């Protein structure tokens, strides 16, 4: 199994609140597309941070921090490009979530979005 797909499966195992999203994703995509699934992970994590109760944003952030610590390129790519880069912008609800990123995610976030802004262009 590819490491990015394993990342998704491990996340769902660590945070069962993602199970329904995962099932719908597999049904709609006919496979696991990790980058696509992580769009839903971002949305659900932000919703949890803002008071939703389907998942626990703290569990998600801890899990992703641990995964980055393993330094697996395919996993790092998904987390950085499809989670961190997709977090809310400074003027959007839920931006305060970035203040709770672990040290590795925080460093990666700052590298791709200094001051929370897009510097890719």
Principal-axes geometry comes out as globular
From the alpha carbons, calculate the radius of gyration and give it in angstroms. 14 Å
Class by SSE composition: mainly alpha
Biggest sheet descriptor: none
Number of helices: 6
- Distance from N terminus to C terminus (CA atoms, Å) equals 34 Å
Uncertain residue ranges: none
Task: List SSEs in N-to-C order.
Answer: HHHHHH
Outline the structure in words.
This protein is mostly helical. The protein is 60% helix and 0% strand. The protein is built from six helices and no strands. Helix 3 crosses helix 5 (73-83). The model has no long low-confidence stretch (mean pLDDT 93).
Give a summary of the structure in a few sentences.
With 121 residues, the chain is mainly alpha-helical. The protein is built from 6 helices and no strands.
Topology at a glance:
Blueprint lengths: L2 H12 L4 H11 L4 H16 L7 H13 L3 H11 L19 H10 L9
Helix pairs in contact: 3-5
Provide the descriptors you would attach to this structure in a database record.
121 residues, 60% helix, mainly alpha
């Amino acid at each position: 199994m590819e490491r990015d797909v394993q990342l998704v499966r491990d996340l769902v195992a660590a945070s069962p609140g993602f199970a329904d999203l995962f099932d719908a994703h597999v049904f709609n995509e006919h496979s696991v597309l990790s980058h696509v699934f992580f769009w839903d992970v971002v949305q659900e994590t932000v919703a949890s941070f803002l008071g939703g109760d389907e998942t626990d944003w703290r569990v998600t952030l801890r899990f992703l921090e641990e995964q980055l610590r393993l330094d697996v390129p395919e996993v790092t790519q998904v987390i950085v490009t499809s989670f961190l880069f997709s977090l809310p912008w400074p003027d959007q609800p839920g931006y305060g979530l970035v203040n709770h990123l672990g040290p590795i995610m925080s460093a990666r976030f700052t590298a791709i979005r200094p001051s929370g802004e897009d510097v890719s262009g």
